Task: structure prediction
Amino acid sequence: MKSKTRPGFDAVIFDIDNVLVDTRMSYLEAIRWTIEIYLTSGTIPLFSPNAKHGSPTVLTTQDVDDFKLLGGFNDDWDCCYGILVYLLSFPVKKRTLAALKEAINLRKFVQSVKHRPLGVAGIVKMFGRPSSVMIERVARIFQEVYLGKDIFEPAESKKSAYWKKRGLIHKEKLVFKKPILSQLKQMGVQLGIATGRPRFEALHVLKHFGILELFDCITPIDDVKKAERLLKQSLRKPHPYSILETAKKLGDRKRFIYLGDLPDDVIATNRAKETLSIVSGVFLALARNPKEALAEIQKAHPDFVIQKPRDLIDLVKKG
Result:
């Protein structure tokens, strides 16, 4: 039964990664593993790992968080590509992962970049486009690591070449639990998703957590890429395309919240304000260093910052 009190907002549009779902042990770890595997196998002059290890050694999770704050790397394949371009700009003499790790200072690099969002175009302008870094191979490694053999092979109709273990997707946890999402629906609020995930992965996780039926629509990266081919321009966040498309599906004569966790999300929402009645909400509870993440994201001028999922209920009620 719907609430008789009209909420202050008509719809909430969610990002999935590290907002709706905790992906710190899945997507972020998949980025770290993709970098490691790419550097130690394939066509580039190889880096040799010092010894067998159970986790990636070149990058920390904080490194990945810092790099994403540069903006323009919402797509994790692009994020892996950008990091590899940066890493391969170092002319290390001893080709080991340990030597590479010692040579880099990713945090210092991130702090030195003034123009944001940087994105692939920006990092290529800084360091060039190494012929040894191929986005197709980056994507293949990432998908194998993230999905694991049990999901990757049936979905892609290919044999796993780089990763024979269980996929990191199984380590994800739902953050905005079903009772909170159900309460929003009972209040008469529509729910949508604008995500950098492919449709298959987005639907898989929503079905897995039993919340798919609560969402009215979804705009995955597949839809964005299709529009990019037609319009011949980049439409990924911080471009507002995915938010605008989701709002259109929900009925754009409404008042929206977009809830994300990165500067790109805030910038995209603020750009969407030219067309929609929308505010940018930020959820940073899963950031590795919430204080630093907040300082960085404040530069993009979000409208709201919420500390816990239930805060969203109060925000929607007040308007």
User: Anything to note?
Assistant: The mean pLDDT is 91.
